[in-house]
Design goal:
- This protein is mainly alpha-helical and 173 residues long.
- It has a single domain, classed as Rossmann fold, CATH 3.40.50.300.
- The strands form 2 sheets. The chain has a two-stranded parallel ribbon. Strands 3-4 form a two-stranded parallel sheet.
- Helix 1 crosses helix 9, helix 2 crosses helix 3 and helix 4 packs parallel to helix 5.
């Protein structure tokens, strides 16, 4: 879910020289290509609309060329939003591993307020609307299919250690 700590995982992957592909970049690029400002509303609209137009796994499909360009045995893909994307990647990659990172709504809301990206919610109501939109896209189903779950609430050092240990384990798989 937004604000759970996906970027933390991605940043740690970078430090281990694991290439990172960010699925949200596909939505942001699509929003721009349609001549829309990258606002929370527009990005949310395009996130739903692109899936309605091109299929529930479209974002995964659009990430595949970037993944293949890395020529790496291990690639971290940040931001899976649906079971259909999970299924797509499992078909494409025999050793696909899904990591879910979880934080409570209150914690995530506070993080997003501090981050203050253009598509971040400004109010609790906006935050709840965004969560509902993410759930509508199927993120809950994807989370339920995770091979690993990391809880990211308070102690950042412990969470970093858990993530790093998991990434080392995956690299050695």
């Amino acid at each position: 879910m937004p604000g759970s700590g996906k970027s933390l995982v991605a940043n740690l992957a970078h430090t281990l020289n694991i290439p990172v592909i960010i699925m949200g970049d596909v939505i942001r690029k699509e929003t721009e290509s349609r001549g829309l400002e990258p606002t929370r509303e527009n990005i949310g609209l395009i996130m739903i609309k692109i899936r309605e137009e091109e299929g529930e796994d479209v974002v995964a499909k659009k990430c595949l060329p970037e993944i293949m360009k890395t020529n790496s045995e291990v690639v971290l893909v940040e931001g899976i939003r649906s079971l259909n994307e999970v299924i797509y990647f499992k078909k494409k990659f025999q050793n696909f591993i899904l990591i879910a990172i979880h934080a409570s709504p209150k914690t995530r809301y506070e993080r997003l307020k501090k981050r203050d990206r253009s598509d971040d919610p400004k109010t609790w109501e906006d935050f709840v609307d965004r969560d509902l939109r993410e759930l509508k896209a199927g993120i809950g189903d994807a989370i339920a299919m995770a091979d690993f779950m990391i809880i990211n609430e308070n102690d950042i050092a412990k969470v970093r250690d858990k993530i790093q240990d998991l990434l080392f384990k995956i690299i050695k798989v």
